[in-house]
Amino acid sequence: MAQSMGAAALLTLSPAYAITAGSHHSCGLRSDGQAVCWGKNSDQQSSPPGGSFAAVTAGSYHNCALQGDGQAVCWGRN
Q: Which pLDDT band, with edges at 50, 70 and 90, does 5 fall under?
């Protein structure tokens, strides 16, 4: 299950293989592909969906991640 966290996310993210930052939030991928986000969550940008991802990138108030099958999943401000 994906998680939205505060500063403690840095401790629970390890080992991480990707980190990205938006305007007031950040997200990372754990080694198992789980997304973890922390920071401002006014547009649900720090509330990632569950699943396993191969890549993640952040915009100002949104994020998009690539699943293993190539499907893109985005969350946050539309």
A: low
Give CA angle at 16 (10, 19), nearest 5°.
75
CA–CA separation, 3 vs 5, rounded Å?
6
**pLDDT band at residue 78 using 50, 70 and 90 as cut-offs:** confident
Helix (H) or strand (E) holding 11: helix 9-12
- Could you give phi then psi for residue 77, rounded to 5 degrees? -70, 130
Cα–Cα dist 19/4, whole Å? 14
Pairing of strands 53-58, 62-67: antiparallel
